[in-house]
Design brief:
alpha/beta; 33% helix; globular
Length: 504
């Protein structure tokens, strides 16, 4: 019998959550570096460069790679010959570790978990409870996988029960094209097939925990049906031309993972879950000899010869920019923003809507300003703000017409991913602009923020309205004042180019 001490278990999971908040897995870094070398679309190449640069900077500073430090997910395979030195449940021990990790004073992680999800949605303040999956297996050790999954990629999960004669590949490709860029590609796609509905989703999630080995699989060839699907999906997804951040390009997925399970003769349950450019997980084993010791990657694991924000970037002073000037910006342009910028996301937009409905004054004058959809990590030391990457803009689509109208008066918005048709129409109608920052480059973005103060709705925490003082924050024009969208034109253009490359 092996005895696992409660403290060793809690310490290991808490340390693992801190570790994965700071360090990308080395196999992911290498896969991204290879994608950077292969990429031929300058906009997508620049986005990958920003992610890699930000990743290396975060590792050096020991700060989160993404402002969305995710929901804690823990997979446990507990040996039959294991006994526990403690009286708490497994869930309680894991939650104790999560609370400690997310409230660490040296590297606080953003609390994103809300209780009463269909009601008050009150933040639990320490990111508990975790999602724990347990299995009792043969052996005398505890196999542990600790992951942190951000909302942008989790929100793009898809599930269906297909007919047994239906094509899994066709369904996956259809879903990928409808998912947009909110999951922050390039990343990894997990596919679960079979079992029952909940089993298929669990298989998809668990598949994402495996090492990235697509080049090795391509070299040796498929040995079973799951590997055949991996190869086929990898090629066909990348042929869609979605590219990094949805800008168009040759790499949309770095790898595709597939797990299957026997199912009912009348069913074909299929689930997909993407892992974003903030891929975070670590695997270790506890054998009763003490807590795990996780060794950080070396700086040599990151490529050094990468360049972000090209020489053709336009510098913009937000303190003096006018609506007339923004109308000269075109979809695909790279900008470097300086000056003062407001922030606000879901909860703040709802507050603004409620104030306008009641005829009450707004706490901030938005006229002629630009708003950034962000919920930053708390600052530490001399930081103006913690990691502060963009959140998915489509969640703010229903507020767009209100925010661009006369009562509020914004001239621009910054987020990540595409906007829906109604939002694009509103942007065109009001002659405004929508810009994107690179999802997955949160630490790099935070270094462009030289000052930050809360100006409204302080009780909303990370969702309060801040005013940021910027110096050269890199963004791309995603929707210009004429309604042209890079998320529409980019993938369409690169889908054709990729087809021509393959024919040649």
């Amino acid at each position: 019998m092996t005895t696992i001490k409660r403290q060793d278990f809690v310490d290991s999971i808490a340390d693992a959550l801190q570790y994965i908040s700071v360090y990308h897995p080395v196999d992911f870094i290498h896969a991204m570096a290879q994608a950077y070398e292969r990429e031929v679309n300058p906009a997508a190449k620049n986005a990958i460069a920003q992610i890699l640069t930000s990743s290396r900077m975060a590792a050096m500073a020991r700060r989160p790679v993404c402002q969305d430090t995710g929901v804690a997910v823990v997979f446990l395979k507990i040996g039959m010959q294991v006994q526990w030195d403690g009286t708490q449940s497994i869930q309680a021990m894991v939650d104790s570790a999560v609370s400690r990790a997310y409230t660490d004073e040296h590297n606080p992680l953003r609390a994103s978990v809300v209780a009463d999800p269909a009601g008050s949605r009150k933040n639990t303040r320490d990111n508990t409870p975790a999602v724990v999956h347990m299995e009792v297996v043969e052996g005398d050790s505890v196999d542990v996988i600790v992951a942190a999954k951000g909302g942008g990629s989790e929100n793009k999960a898809r599930f269906a029960v297909l007919n047994p004669s239906d094509s899994v590949v066709d369904w996956v490709l259809e879903q990928l094209q409808s998912m947009g860029a909110g999951w922050c590609p390039p990343g990894i796609l997990g596919v679960g097939i079979g079992g029952t509905p909940e089993k298929a989703l669990l298989l998809a999630k668990e598949s994402l925990m495996a090492p990235l080995d697509m080049p090795e699989l391509q070299a040796r060839g498929a040995g079973n049906r799951c590997e055949e699907l991996r190869l086929e999906l990898y090629d066909k997804i990348n042929a869609l031309g979605i590219g990094a951040q949805g800008l168009g390009g040759i790499t949309t997925v770095l790898d595709v993972k597939v797990l299957d399970y026997p199912t009912h003769a009348t069913s074909l349950p299929v689930a997909i879950i993407p892992n974003c450019a903030a891929t975070r997980h670590v695997h270790f084993t506890l054998d009763g000899t003490g807590p795990v010791q996780l060794i950080p990657p070396t700086l040599e694991d990151w490529p050094e010869d990468i360049l972000a924000a090209g020489e053709d970037a336009k510098r913009v002073d937000l303190d003096t920019v006018s609506a007339a000037e923004t109308r000269n910006w075109k979809a695909g342009d790279t900008l470097l923003l300086s000056g003062k910028m407001l922030t606000g996301r879901d909860a703040a937009h709802k507050r603004i809507q409620d104030l306008l409905t009641r005829g009450e004054p707004l706490p901030v004058d938005f006229h002629g300003r630009v708003i950034y959809y962000v919920g930053p990590v708390d600052a530490v030391g001399d930081e103006a703000v913690g990691p502060a990457g963009p959140t998915t803009a489509t969640r703010m689509d229903k507020f767009t017409d209100m925010m661009l109208g006369e009562q509020v008066g914004l001239i621009g918005m910054i987020g990540k991913a595409e906007r829906g048709p109604a939002a694009v129409e509103s942007i065109q109608q009001h002659k405004a602009v929508y810009l994107i920052a690179t999802g997955g480059a949160a630490y790099l973005v935070s270094k462009a923020i030289k000052g930050a103060r809360v100006v409204a709705f302080e009780d909303l925490g990370m969702e309060a309205i801040h005013e940021f003082e910027l110096q050269d924050m890199p963004v791309t024009v995603a929707v210009d004042s004429d309604g042209n969208s890079i998320h529409t034109s980019g993938p369409a253009e690169w889908r054709v180019k990729i087809e021509k490359m393959r024919v040649a």
